[in-house]
Amino acid sequence: MRKGDRKTKRGKIWFGTFGKLRRPLENEKRPESDVPDKPAKSY
């Protein structure tokens, strides 16, 4: 809820909902460029 939240608007949705569970996993393993792609499809 730090990186994606401040850089992209979609990051707020991602880290706001799924970020609570997958924050330590998705944040370290997956790059920031791949983060805004997932909430765009699932949301």
From TrEMBL:
It holds the Pfam family Thx. InterPro entries: Ribosomal_bTHX, Ribosomal_bTHX/bTHXc/bTHXm. Residues 1-43 are annotated as: Disordered. Keywords: Ribonucleoprotein, Ribosomal protein. Residues 1-12 have a biased composition (Basic residues). NCBIfam families: ribo_THX (TIGR04560). This is 30S ribosomal protein THX.
